[in-house]
Design a protein that fits this description.
The structure holds three protein chains of three kinds. Helix content of chain A is 46%, strand content 21%. Chain A is of the alpha+beta class. Classes of the chains: A alpha+beta, B alpha/beta, C alpha/beta.
Chain lengths: 731, 128, 81
């Protein structure tokens, strides 16, 4: 992607976020002019950016929104909730367009049509707002003045305009007829007097008392654009069927359709009762599915069956009423799938920057204090006094360093919602494409994690979800046969567990077919026959993460893309995380991604071999043990240790690292037990050290390719601590 | 990704232009469309094949839309459960009430934008 | 000046009638309570002129020459008399 476009995307996302902030603040306090100005500017700048990259659909959509905000700004009024929602929807749409651009590098093909729709929604909501706010007795009476014959043709847009110029319009040099002449595709004009009783004797010819209605074969947007010079009251109405104009959004259309089924049932006589019940039930179920309210749809479906058996409407009426009361805008309007991008820039809450500035100030104060201490040391000050001063300064420095670290980390934090919110719609689509119905439940989306981790999680999670839907959740028939609800459930949960962020993906499907996994693993030589035989079921289940493994019997367009769950494992490990799987036949599978809260902090345990210190990532350390050397037994070419009746393979770290070997000094072996995927292995070291949190610096340059090393960190005494990658040690 | 592709819609209207207009709107969204010129022909079609939705005009020769809806509902056959959307130029409350009493599930007044029609069809079919 | 009273007792509007014609037309109408109006040569009219026509409710000979004026459906001024 060229740099220009990249810059555009980055800036636009910032502007969208800023506009959303302002709009949400306006929702709280509609009269906040500062926020209104802010939102207006953000829309305006976004529009300008769209123009620069020649994204016409985006430019005109934002122009329509900007127009609305400008009107509100100049009128000094408050923004109506309806308008505010449309402006937010407009940003949502724009953000989806940007996601598509990020992926493909070009504006999405659907943008033009979506822009048309969005603009008419924006204009519609503005007109609704004007109707609400208009000072005059409005009503729709004036629409009766339209010439029906001119409008009888049904195709194309029809707009009616009512224009009541202000009385001094003529004095202002304004000619309403000239304005009308400039309107697009005028079909007819009806001119009336605001005061029909006025006579030639009493009239003031230069005072305007006209009430004009114009109807046009044009869109409301075009009409509005031509109205810029209007002096007085204007009202635009898109001419659609009554009952449809209110149902501008898709969601409210579905709600309307749902509601009207109650009326259909109300009219039910005994004649054609079952047809009426069944059709109303079917319509209601579909409307609910359309709204993404699958659970309610199931309830209504069951109520329909009950109503049909009992030959009465009340069960269905009650079910629909219940669904309506909880209707709410459960719009699962969601972002289009997009490739994950690693954020190069991050929007940061000002307060978090302020915290850093404050800490910097404190550090400078401390620096001066240390300078003073250094001077004291040159003046033969008593060592005890100097020591006290240094101790004090060290304590302060320690506190500041910790605070600084925390503050820096806070900057890089994002809630998981930002990735979770993309999934509900994707899950529905994936499930639909394989003929399954699946409900996605997300939990803990407030949980925060390092922005880089959050952004990088989209693809692995999508892959796991695909896999759960494709292979985990059974077909509705099989589920029914197993006595499960036809609709499968997948839970996507984020939670904080000490220093880790854990993401669980649980499905209530059939579980991993372990016999099949073993067979495939043998067939594809992922593991030897002996190794397979020795594996516990839990270990065998983890084979699905092995490279080149896929249990799909048929390759679907979903999971069968040549990448298996091994890519998920690799992605998670790149982020410094681990993956675990638990499966129970017939009950379901649960996959947990355990990720560090932050990429920067790694808890390690230090150990010493051959006089050198090394770090081991604490999240793979299970426990440490000091055992009698006679418990270490040779097995094949290696060693093993028996711990609590369990034989665990043992590696001598000195040997593994190729360090000069000394004969064991004592008859005790110091062992660190580590979890390596599903396995447990021991590492023999000379000395067990302490636990510490370090800022891990990845190996780069010449050392980037060194295996077995996760990174380095600087110790307090200036030494470099090499942190080992436990996994690779055992390979 | 839409599952509209598998959805069958019957359009019953005597005006060829209207049928073409509806067909274009619906097919653009992936729906399959069958046409009937009046209520009688509509009945023939709906008895031969099941539909996910019938879009029916009110004023038609031979058999009007209201009679068509009442007949479909009264048959006590699986076909009676077909959701029906009535579309008419008549916008009076009595017209809407008549359609509802006959058993229509929703009523729209012409003129209708293609997008609006397609959106309603999608909702009726539980498509996205 | 495009609003003119003719000997025949008919007021004609011709060409594009600017705002000032409203006053002229009003005076002509007040002075000639039975005069009819012919606007077949009128290509455009200021809204103030139209307003006077509406208040006058006089017989109007049309249709006018201007395309927009022909689209005015208001009964008192759309009759092609």
């Amino acid at each position: 992607m060229d740099e220009f476009l990249e810059q555009f995307l980055l800036e636009s996302r910032d502007l969208i976020a800023q506009a959303i902030d302002d709009l949400l603040a306006l929702e709280e306090k509609p009269s906040d002019t500062e926020r209104l100005d802010g939102a207006f500017r953000a829309f305006h700048t976004l529009k300008g950016a769209a123009g620069i990259v020649d994204f016409a659909a985006m430019a005109r959509t934002l122009h329509a929104a900007e127009d609305i905000l400008a009107t509100i700004r100049s009128s000094g009024g408050a923004i109506a909730p309806g308008l505010l929602n449309e402006c937010l929807t407009c940003l949502d749409l724009t953000s989806r367009w940007l996601d598509a651009m990020q992926t493909s590098g070009v504006a999405p093909a659907t943008a033009e049509a979506e822009a048309d729709d969005m603009i008419s929604r924006l204009v519609g909501s503005r007109d609704a707002d004007e109707r609400d706010q208009a000072p005059q007795p409005q009503g729709d009476d004036w629409l009766q003045r339209l010439d029906a014959s001119a409008l009888a043709r049904f195709d194309g847009p029809r707009v009616a305009l009512r224009y009541i110029p202000s009385p001094d319009a003529f004095f202002q040099g304004h000619d309403p007829m000239a304005l009308i002449a400039g309107l697009p595709h005028v079909l007819g004009v009806d001119v009336a007097l605001t005061d029909p009783a006025v006579s030639l004797d009493s009239m003031a010819p230069f005072s305007c008392g006209l009430d004009i209605v114009v109807w046009m074969a044009a869109s409301a947007v075009d009409v509005r654009a031509a109205l810029t010079g209007a002096v007085g009251l204007t009202e635009i109405r898109e001419l659609a069927a009554p009952g449809v104009t209110q149902a501008e959004s898709d969601t409210s259309k579905a709600a309307l359709l749902l509601e009207s089924q109650l009326l259909v049932l109300q009219d039910a006589g005994s004649d054609g009762l079952s047809g009426r019940l069944a059709s109303a039930g079917r319509t209601a179920v579909h409307a609910l599915i359309h709204l993404g309210r699958d659970e309610a749809a199931i309830v209504v479906d069951q109520a329909t069956a009950k109503a049909l058996v009992e030959r009465r409407t009340s069960p269905l009426v009650e079910a629909i009423e219940r669904a309506l009361t909880r209707a709410g805008p459960a719009s699962v309007r969601d972002d289009a799938p997009a490739r994950v991008h690693v954020p190069r820039a991050l929007r940061v809450d000002m307060s978090r920057i302020d915290a850093l500035v404050k800490l910097t100030g404190e550090l400078i104060v401390l620096k001066n204090a240390i300078g003073h201490a250094a001077k004291l040391s040159q003046e033969n000050t008593q060592p005890a006094v100097l020591a006290a001063s240094l101790r004090d300064q060290h304590a302060q420095f320690d506190r500041l360093a910790t605070e600084l670290q925390t503050a820096v980390l806070r900057i890089r934090v994002l809630p998981l919602r930002s990735v979770f919110r993309r999934f509900p719609r994707l899950v529905r689509e994936i499930a639909g494409s394989v003929g399954k119905t699946v409900r996605l439940v997300t939990e803990g989306d407030d949980t925060e994690a390092d922005a880089m981790i959050v952004e990088a999680l989209f693809e692995p999670l999508l892959h796991i979800l695909r896999n759960a839907i494709d292979h985990g959740i059974e077909s509705p028939e099989r589920r029914a046969a197993a006595g499960k609800p036809a609709m499968g459930t997948v839970v996507l949960r984020a939670r904080r567990e000490s220093d880790s962020v854990v993401i669980d993906v649980e499905d209530d499907g059939a579980g991993v077919d372990l016999a099949r996994v073993r067979a495939v693993a043998a067939q594809r030589r992922i593991a030897g026959a002996d190794a397979l035989a020795a594996m516990t079921d839990a270990e065998a289940a983890h084979l699905i993460f092995a490279a080149g493994f896929s249990t799909a019997t048929t390759v679907t367009d979903l999971s069968g893309r040549g990448v298996g769950l091994d890519s998920v494992k690799a992605a998670v490990e790149r982020l410094g995380g681990r993956i675990a799987l638990e499966t129970r036949p017939g009950i379901g599978t649960s996959i947990a991604l355990m990720l560090p809260f932050s990429l920067m902090m790694t808890p390690v345990m230090t150990v010493e071999v051959a006089g050198q210190a090394f770090g081991l990532p604490l999240d793979s350390v299970l426990e440490t043990a000091i055992v009698k050397r006679n418990l270490v037994v040779p097995i094949g070419s290696g060693h093993a240790v028996v711990l609590r009746d369990r034989t665990v393979p043992l590696i001598d770290l000195t040997q593994a690292l190729g360090l000069p070997h000394h004969p064991p000094a004592s008859d005790q072996a110091r062992i660190v037990l580590m979890s390596i995927g599903p396995k447990v292995a021991g590492l023999e070291v000379d000395r067990l050290g302490e636990r510490m949190d370090v800022m891990l610096k990845p190996m780069d340059g010449l050392l980037a390719g060194v295996s077995g090393v996760a990174g380095t960190t600087l110790l307090g005494d200036g030494r470099v601590l090499i942190v080992l990658n436990a996994e690779e040690l055992f390979d | 990704m839409t599952d509209a592709a598998k959805k069958q819609i019957l359009v019953v209207d005597d005006a060829a232009l209207v049928r073409t207009y509806y067909r274009a709107a619906l097919e653009a969204r992936g729906f399959k469309v069958e046409e009937a010129l009046n209520g009688l022909e509509g009945l023939e079609k709906i008895l031969l094949q099941s539909f996910d939705l019938a879009i029916v005009d009110v004023n038609m020769p031979q058999m009007d839309g209201i009679t068509f809806v009442r007949t479909v509902r009264a048959m006590e056959l699986p076909v009676s459960s077909t959701p029906i959307l009535m579309i008419s130029t008549e916008a009076g409350p009595q017209d809407i009430a008549a359609a509802r009493q006959a058993g229509a599930n929703y009523y729209l007044v012409k003129p209708i934008k293609q997008d609006t029609l397609a959106e309603f069809a999608a909702i009726f079919c539980g498509a996205h | 000046m495009t609003a003119v009273l003719h000997d025949s007792g008919i007021i004609t509007l011709s060409g594009a009638c600017p705002v000032d014609d409203a006053e002229t037309l009003l005076q002509l109408l007040l002075a000639n309570p039975t005069a009819e109006i012919d606007w077949r040569d009128c290509t455009a009219a200021h809204a103030a002129v139209i307003q006077v026509l509406l208040v006058a409710k006089r017989p109007l000979r049309g249709p006018p020459a201007g395309p927009l004026l022909t689209r005015i459906v208001t009964p008192t001024i759309s009759s092609s008399g």
